[in-house]
Structure formats: structure tokens, C-alpha cells
Design goal:
The complex is a heterodimer of chains A (about 350) and B (about 120). Chain A contains 13 helices and no strands. The longest helix of chain A is centred in the first third of the chain and has 35 residues. Chain B is elongated and about 65 Å long. Chain B contains five helices and three strands; from the N terminus they run H-E-H-H-E-E-H-H. Chain B has a single domain, classed as Orthogonal Bundle (Arc Repressor Mutant, subunit A). In chain B, strand 2 and strand 3 form a beta hairpin. The chains are: A mainly alpha (about 350), B alpha+beta (about 120). The interface between A and B is medium-sized, with 39 and 30 residues.
Chain lengths: ~350, ~120
């Protein structure tokens, strides 16, 4: 028996030629990979048009010329496109993309989780709850805002820890829910900053946008994926937390111009340098998935850095921050170039279908 | 071969069930699934063909025949032997889960729990 993969069917249209509705649906289908479209497009169009048929000839005519695919239909095709492009198509290229995006998501969640845990710990330390620790240094002695909402906002970072652990242990839906929860807190901050016309008002929106991208990227996690190497990723959490805490303390003591976007840039550049150095010294063999994952993170950190620089550029007397941010962006570009070169060389090419 | 070739999601379960009675084409499957689930599961076309692609790829469903209906392509799909076995195994697993929950609920009814 012939399977639908073996050949593409002839173009299927209505006897009166394609209407605007069909053309619009075909435009939506262009989100899908070409190979998949070649196999399924005609059937999808036929099934969609059949679902839009009406008994009333006038209504049918109207729909044919002025109808549009519903948002839920567009959403189902978009979700399918993301799944296929991140491994679901089963081609070497899509599998490499899927593996890379999963690694990038885990690394981004690791940074957020470590940041959330360190932030919450810092808040408790400054509040004097962690009395067994030495007193905070004098530069941090300024009173921190109190009140339920301020404390809740400072402690809300721990939802990223929950999100990270959820993905490590295969609870994808719970992980996405925790990311959504983290975004709610960030959205509240962004709205308050905008309403109050506070300085640095672009930064929370930029962070929110990238968290939305992160949420979409979790589509790369599917039920039939290989299990995550949980133990290694669990060990990375205290190590990442210690590195972040050390960077924060050192940055504060040295009065370094390091905000959250800058901190992320430093972490990504350090990880990329370690990876590229290991490859150059032949200590570790680069893989397409890790190279692409680091490239994705470099591009993301660069986007966040450039967007957040707008805030500093809009405020007088922040030239030093702009220069520091530009230097971080330049460092990201410097590690991004060899990563892009390695990716172009190692990523499997699309197989013509 | 593993017991479960694909993760049998709810849409996959209903699509396989819709094909038990005989071959159906894409929109026919959508209608049958809506009827089987009493309107609860309304498959979008993108969802249907995402699942169908995997089911065909895993050999649980195969092409039966092609027809042209008013100038449009209709491809009919049918359940394969492995597809039937996979569906039976999944149905048994779901039934066992349901029995487990029902037995637990019977054993721990509020009135009994209070008197215990």
C-alpha cells in the first residue's frame, strides 16, 4: 500500500478555482516546513475547505470570498510548525534544532533559577532572617523596600527554580505554568514602571518579551524526547548559584556596571569562551546541538543587552552604563561569530523532499 | 518493539478510535471524533494532520484509497494491525486506571471514612 509520503498529490482546488479563503489558508500553511507541505498541504486544504462548507449558498459564497481561517485554526498550524521545526519532522536538521533549543531553554532556565534563588536569598539576608550569616557589607546597608508586594516580588524569582526542576523531571505542563507565573510578576513590574514613568522602563518589557520567547521555545520538549541528564543539570544549579552570587558580590564591591542583562551577557560569553576554548584545545568535541544552543543564547543575550541599552541612552549622565553595555554587546558579537561559523559547518543540511 | 510506539495523546486516541469502524478521510475523522466525544474534542485541521503524520509514520494508520470529491482530494485512512493492537493496549491501560480510581473511591467514601 502506498503511503502519503511517497508522492505529492495534484493541486486540489474548488471547481471554480481557489477563492480568497483558500489562498489565505495556503498562506498560513507556509509556516510549515516545505517537505511536510509537499506531503500534506492538499489534504489539509481540502479538509479545511470542507470544514467551512455551508448549506446556504449565499453564506458559502461570502465565506469563499471574505472568509478567514479562525485564530484557533491558525494556532493549530503554528503549533504544528513549531513542533516540526524543533524535531518533530524527524529530519537531522530539525532534530538538531530541537536538541539545541531544549539545551538553550534549560540553560536559560538554569540562569533564571539560580538568579531567583540568589535574589530570594539576598532579600532574606538583607532582612536579617539569615542571622547565622555575617552582616551584609555597608554598601548594601540601605533599607530595602518593605511591604507585602515588595517582599513578594523579591521572592517571586523562586518560581523559576520550580520551572527549571519541572522541566528536568519531565513535567512540561507544570514547567510552562511556572514560567507563566514568573511572567505575571515581571508583567506587573513592567506595567508599574510604565505607569510611574520610572527610569529603566524598557528593560522589564524587554525581559518579558524574551520570557515569552522562552515559553514558546518550550514547545521543543515533547513526550517522546530522550530523558534529560537530570543529575548533571541538578549539580549545575548550586554551581550556577554560587557563580552568580560571587559575581554579584564582586560586582558590588568593585562597583562594576553590571545589571541583569549585563550579568547574562557575562555568563553567556564565559560559557561560549569555555566551549570554544575546549574545542580549540581539543579537550572536548563540539556538537551541533551545543554549538547552536550557545549561538541561540548569544543572540538572545545580545537582543536583551541592546534593548535594555535604550533605557540608559534615554537618561542623562548614564554614558558609563552605555559604554559598559556596548562593550558587553561587542563581547557577545565576538563569541557569536565563531559559534555561527561552527554552526554553519556542523548543522545537518535540509534534505530535499 | 516498545509497548507504546507513540505517546497516545487524547487526539491520537480518538483518531485511532474513529478509524476502527472503517476507513475515513480527513474531515470525516474530524466529524467522527466530535461525535464519539459528544462534541468535547473538536480537532483543528493542524492538530489532525500533525497526529495523522505521526500515526502514518509509526505504521499505526495507512492510506486506504484516494478519491476526488468536487475537484478536491480525499484520502481515506484505515487502521493497521499494529494500530489496532496499540489502541487496544491504550484502552486497557485507561480502563485499568479508571478501575483503580473507582475502587479507591468506593473504598474511601466519606461516610465510611468518618465511621472508620
Amino acid at each position: 500500500m502506498r503511503s502519503p509520503q511517497e508522492d505529492a498529490p495534484p493541486r486540489s482546488t474548488s471547481p471554480r478555482g481557489p477563492g480568497r479563503l483558500e489562498e489565505r489558508y495556503r498562506t498560513v500553511l507556509r509556516l510549515l516546513p516545505a517537505g511536510y507541505r509537499a506531503r500534506w498541504e492538499e489534504e489539509m486544504v481540502a479538509a479545511f475547505l470542507e470544514s467551512m462548507e455551508r448549506d446556504d449558498p449565499e453564506e458559502a459564497e461570502f465565506l469563499r470570498d471574505y472568509g478567514r481561517p479562525s485564530w484557533s485554526e491558525v494556532g493549530s498550524v503554528a503549533a504544528l510548525a513549531v513542533r516540526l521545526r524543533l524535531g518533530g519532522a524527524g529530519t537531522p536538521r530539525s532534530l538538531a534544532w530541537g536538541a539545541a533549543v531544549r539545551l538553550a531553554v534549560l540553560m536559560a532556565l538554569l540562569a533564571q533559577a539560580a538568579g531567583g534563588a540568589v535574589g530570594a536569598g539576598l532579600r532574606l539576608w538583607l532582612a536579617g532572617v539569615l542571622s547565622w550569616l555575617p552582616d551584609p557589607p555597608g554598601v548594601w546597608a540601605a533599607p530595602t523596600p518593605s511591604g507585602f508586594w515588595h517582599v513578594a516580588a523579591d521572592l517571586s524569582g523562586v518560581v523559576w527554580l520550580a520551572a527549571y526542576l519541572a522541566f528536568l523531571f519531565g513535567h512540561r505542563s507544570a514547567g510552562r505554568a511556572f514560567i507563566g507565573l514568573g511572567m505575571v510578576s515581571l508583567a506587573a513590574t513592567a506595567v508599574v514602571s510604565t505607569v510611574d514613568a520610572a527610569p529603566l522602563a524598557v528593560s522589564p518589557w524587554a525581559a518579558l518579551l524574551l520570557d515569552g520567547v522562552l515559553l514558546l521555545a518550550t514547545a521543543a520538549f515533547r513526550p517522546d524526547d530522550l530523558p534529560v541528564r537530570t543529575r548533571a543539570w541538578l549539580w549545575a544549579l548550586p554551581v550556577g548559584g554560587a557563580v552568580l552570587a560571587a559575581l554579584l558580590i564582586a560586582g558590588s564591591v568593585a562597583s562594576a556596571l553590571l545589571d541583569w542583562a549585563g550579568l547574562q551577557a557575562v555568563l553567556v560569553v564565559a560559557a561560549a569562551l569555555a566551549y570554544l576554548g575546549g574545542a580549540a584545545l581539543r579537550l572536548a568535541r563540539p556538537t551541533p546541538a551545543w554549538t547552536l544552543a550557545l549561538l541561540v543564547l548569544t543572540v538572545t543575550a545580545l537582543a536583551l543587552r541592546l534593548l535594555t541599552l535604550v533605557d540608559y541612552a534615554l537618561i542623562d549622565g548614564q554614558a558609563a552604563w552605555v559604554v559598559a553595555g556596548a562593550a558587553q554587546a561587542a563581547a557577545l558579537l565576538a563569541v557569536g561569530a565563531p559559534l555561527a561559523f561552527l554552526t554553519a559547518r556542523s548543522l545537518p543540511r535540509s534534505v530535499p523532499t | 518493539m516498545s509497548q507504546y510506539i507513540v505517546a497516545v495523546t487524547e487526539p491520537a486516541f480518538f483518531i485511532l478510535t474513529a478509524l476502527v469502524a472503517g476507513p475515513r478521510h480527513g474531515y470525516g475523522i474530524v466529524g467522527e471524533v466530535a461525535e464519539l466525544s459528544h462534541g468535547r474534542v473538536r480537532l483543528k485541521i493542524g492538530t489532525l494532520y500533525g497526529v495523522l503524520d505521526r500515526l502514518v509514520g509509526d505504521g499505526l494508520v495507512e492510506l486506504d484509497r484516494e478519491e476526488a470529491e468536487r475537484g478536491r482530494l480525499r484520502r481515506y485512512y484505515r487502521l493497521t494491525g499494529p494500530g489496532r493492537r496499540e489502541l487496544a493496549a491504550e484502552a486497557e491501560r485507561q480502563a485499568a486506571n479508571a478501575r483503580l480510581a473507582t475502587d479507591r473511591l468506593r473504598a474511601f467514601q466519606p461516610a465510611k471514612a468518618e465511621t472508620a
